[in-house]
Write a structure and sequence with these properties.
By secondary structure, the chain is of the alpha+beta class. The protein contains 15 helices and 20 strands. The protein folds into 3 domains: 133 residues, Rossmann fold (3-Layer(aba) Sandwich); 108 residues, PAS domain (Beta-Lactamase); 160 residues, 2-Layer Sandwich (Alpha-Beta Plaits), CATH 3.30.70.
């Protein structure tokens, strides 16, 4: 292993020679001694030493401190100051306040050996730490999710490029600001702002997931669905030193979930609730009736009269447009809390809630028949239809969703047999 190279910068020639001799006795290589700061900077560039021993009271245009700054900043070479006066050490805001940064004159060869080795070791440790910090920074910057680090106070310490993209804040303008100002979050389920994430994670001391329906309000007002968590940052002693918020844009996932939900519970043509969702809402109505005995509801089952002829005459495309128009008219006939669903083909169902008696239901049935009986203008054609309606009222604790729909269906077929364009109420006594 080659001996470490040390550049000596000292304007007292005798002392400089003594230092060189001592260093060489200790096994170091001293390729040069210089007395001027300008020359020292040039020598560092040429020699590339492992350490520079420099007199803090150096003669010349540039003093020792400024020379050392240049050497450390531009060449990343460690510097050990040669200090004669204790006043330098005691003065505030100076380089000598750092440990292992100086050696006080006069010194023994043993003191010099120890100071040189410790200065080199300190530099190696700092380099390793800086390299690790840069590596971790590169990893964080390369992550596809946003990362925001805060102090224990909740103020932003750093954020990666993805966090800048999603929030609309640059790291330099976000630095020192409160997390809730930079990462403006809203819990859509609770319809309230999320302002105390850092406080919460400090209190519980463990990872906290963001709310399921969490929305980020970017600096420009964009709303972005996000997900992930915030975690405490601990030092080697287990003390919490800050928090790290990690999140990513889940808008596409939310859209896919919404589409899957729509496909599962809504009719693809009319956008009305399908059979599955209608029966689920009917089930909830039955459960409400069990808790509130005065609560009443009814199910209407509808079948368009002569829809097959409309399809045969105008084609299935026109038939689909006609069903969409019918769906819209049906919704206009009921209240906002009621449910209109499509069971398939030309079959529809209506759940009427909070009714007083059968009269409320028959009045809605009449209104539906009157509304659907009006001509519908499609592509220059006026198309008319009528509807047959079956009605089933809730009977009590033994009601089942499928049973009520079946009863309304039975009543609807009875209305058709009676001449169509009619409504009929299911009679439990005759099962018709």
């Amino acid at each position: 292993m080659l001996p470490r190279k040390i550049l000596v910068v000292e304007d007292e020639k005798v002392l400089a020679l003594n230092i060189r001799n001592s260093l060489q006795n200790l096994g170091y290589n001293v390729p040069k001694i210089t007395i001027y700061g300008e020359e020292a900077i040039k020598n560092v560039s040429e020699i590339q030493p492992h350490l520079v021993l420099i007199d803090i009271d150096l003669l010349g245009i540039i003093d020792g401190v400024h020379v050392a700054d240049n050497i450390q900043n531009y060449f990343h070479t460690p510097v050990l100051y040669l200090v004669e006066c204790l006043e330098y050490i005691k003065s505030p805001n100076n380089r000598l306040s750092e440990s292992l940064s100086y050696i006080l004159k006069p010194f023994t060869e043993i003191d010099l050996h120890l100071a040189v080795e410790m200065a080199i070791y300190k530099h190696q440790v700092n380099q390793k730490m800086q390299s690790e910090k840069q590596r971790m920074g590169s990893i964080i910057d390369s992550m596809p999710c946003a990362v925001v680090v805060t102090y224990t106070s909740g103020r932003v310490q750093m954020m990666n490029p993805m966090a800048e993209v999603l929030t609309g804040w640059k790291q330099d303008e976000a630095f020192g600001r409160d997390l809730s100002e930079v990462v403006n979050l809203v819990d859509k389920d609770m319809d309230e702002a999320i302002n105390n994430l850092v406080t919460q994670v400090m209190e519980v001391g463990e990872v906290l997931n963001l709310p399921e329906n969490c929305m980020l309000i970017a600096k420009d007002g964009r709303e972005i669905a996000i997900g992930d968590n915030i975690a405490p940052i601990r030092d080697r002693n287990g003390q919490i030193t800050g928090a790290v918020l990690v999140f990513h844009d889940i808008s596409q996932r939310k859209q896919m979930e919404a589409q899957l939900l729509r496909n599962a519970f809504y009719d693809g043509l009319t956008a009305l609730p399908n059979r599955v969702l209608f029966l689920d809402r009917l089930k909830h109505a039955i459960q409400r009736q069990k808790r509130r005995h005065e609560y009443r509801f009814a199910v209407l089952f509808l079948d368009l009269d002569g829809f097959k002829e409309i399809n045969d005459r105008f084609g299935h495309g026109m038939g689909d447009d006609f069903l969409v128009a019918i769906a819209s008219r049906l919704e206009s006939c009921v209240r906002g809390g009621d449910t209109v669903g499509r069971f398939g083909g030309d079959e529809f169902a209506v759940l009427l809630e909070e009714i007083k008696d059968v009269t409320d239901t028959t009045n809605v049935a009449k209104r539906i028949q009157d509304t659907l009986g009006l001509p519908i203008n499609l592509n220059g054609h006026q198309i008319c239809t009528t509807v047959s309606i079956g009605i089933a009222l809730n009977n009590g604790d033994d009601d089942e969703p499928e049973t009520l729909v079946r009863d309304a269906d039975i009543a609807m077929y009875r209305a058709k047999k009676q001449g169509k364009a009619r409504y009929s109420v299911f009679d439990a006594a005759t099962n018709s």
